[in-house]
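In the lab's daily routine, each protein ends up as an entry in a very long ledger. A line of letters takes care of the sequence, but it says nothing directly about the fold. The fold becomes a row of whole numbers, each drawn from a learned catalogue of backbone shapes. The protein below has been through that process, and both of its lines are reproduced in full:
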Amino acid sequence: MLWNTNKSLPNWTYVVDERSQRGPGVELEAASSKISRSTYTRAIYTIRFKSNINDLKNALNGLEEVQIKVNQDLKTLEIKGKSLQIQLMRWLREVEDIVSDANSLQERRVSCALFSKCRLSKKLVVILEKVKKLEKQGVELLDEFSVEGKSPLVEKVLGPSILDQTVASGMVVKVLNCLMSDKVQKIGVWGMGGVGKTTLVRELNNRLWKEAATQRFGMVIWVTVSKEFELGRVQKQIAERLDMQMNLGENEETTARRIYGKLENISSFLLVLDDVWHSIDLDKLGIPQTDGSKIILTSRSLEVCQSIRIDVDFKVDCLREDEAWELFCQNAGEVTRSDRVRPIAKKVAKECGGLPLAIITVGMAMRGKKKDKLWKHALKELKSSVPYVKCIEQKIYQPLKLSYDSLEKGFIDETENNSYLMNQGIVLVENLKDSCLLEEGARDGTVKMHDVVRDFAKWVMSSSQYDSHSLVMSGVGLREFPQEKFVPSLRRVSLMNNKLKKLPESPEGLETLISLRLLDLSRTHHLERIPAGTIRQLSSLEVLDMTLSHFHWSVQGQTQEGQATLEEIASLHRLSILSIRVVCVPHLSLEYNSWIERLKKFQLFIGPTANSLPTRLDKRRVTISSLNVSEAFIGWLLANTISLVMNHCWGLNEMLENLVIDSTSSFNMLS
């Protein structure tokens, strides 16, 4: 290029073609160089064909991971309505296109000829660059979304796991299967307090948390309801999970509409309502019951579960003995391996009855205690239903008392007919079963009570802080009468199944219990002496149960000096239920006749061997065994008796003759 330097001439620019300055040899050399570079490039692409394929595979794997996270976040964005959702969806479409192209290229590599590999490899490189670019964009979008404060699809709920519990783990799988079923929308999980309902559902929640990217729900919401139900407090938990702002002064109905609107935009959600005590109106909460969404409710009561019209229910039972022992060892620690402690520890664990809460509480209380005497003391206290450490009362008995307090108290109206009474009794029993305070018995038509529930019941009945006015010390091996525990305010006393030989002498004995209404001395197989005058002082007594007791009540003229007689019982004007053993058939007297007419229910076992368990049909029963009844007059008894049993007696003919002569209507009451 030449510039004109003569200023008198126009300022022209001359362009000279450099090729015109070259000869033919220079052009040939340039062409040869260009061909060489092209051949080299094709060779490189061909050689790197395989590595390009591998690089693309790895890049696609990385892109797939980002794609999964983006899909996961999109579910959350369905709730939030973020503008970022549009960008993520556009990115996903581009990913689908590029993955499709990449897969197409990878399929072609199988059949392509050698001369085609260069061209294919070159396309692979282009695709690879696009994949890397999309992956980078996806990560940036996720970071942007994270800065905006997204809520995770599933929040982990902290607490112990049930990995070592085969039955519970199996139930988690069953509940998960129900969550996958289109036929099930609402699931109830119920069982007694401390049995592990929350632990089981927590395990289910945390499994979904681990699989957050692949599980089916757009949002899993965990809400703890508790006994003191407040609609606004429950709504607040749901709203916080949905990143909703709670407006000051907003009423519950408005909050419900806002929650409904948020949840309705989710393709599917799972709502866990934990620890529910009363029926819940899902509409008032603002919960849409749409296809694909699920609700799990945990409660101590089957009736509460049914209040939201559950499709299926799961009852959580106590642990098997091997699982209970394993859980106990985890909480009690290395001390359970000791040869001296281990046998006692197993008995202590067994006293917990497979109830996880009791096992954990007692195990932790005994952790690190190496002296076997401490374990023996704990075992004795547990068997006597005594909360020997404060934590047992706080962590086991108090929660169970909440179930007890929530019951509707019911009494059977004895003025109704038998059919109504039977139905009313069945209703009361079923309510106790549905509240897990009673369980199905081993045989049809029977029930049983869990050991821990029984201990709790005894604790409630004996706890003065609840103004129960009761003392329950049944089956604790008593040999001496516990006088220090008797106060005038007591109304109910149970000393059944103990080794007492005598009741205390006056004035330190039972006669101070002027408010006592029930005295249970049944199964006192060693009881030989009741001092005269003791029972007479119990003027408020309504129930005296001495079924299967060793003590025999004497009649006037046939008693040992200082021993209580049947006449004392006849003086108890409020007595309505009685079960005792009597030495012989009492003689007729106006006093006897009047008090036995007042009794609503009685079991009289007359004779040295007369003793048996009453049945539900024995409302007014007399059993006479191993006696000479030839001179006995039992007409006054039969006039008030529905059931008469006579075993190994003699003189029956004479007795029947006396009945025919003296009282032709004596058998009218017998059924």
Notes: The chain has five domains: 47-147, 166-315, 321-384, 392-467, 468-662. The CA atoms of residues 38 and 398 lie 86 Å apart. Residues 1-26, 28-37 have pLDDT under 50 and may be disordered. The chain has 21 helices and 17 strands.
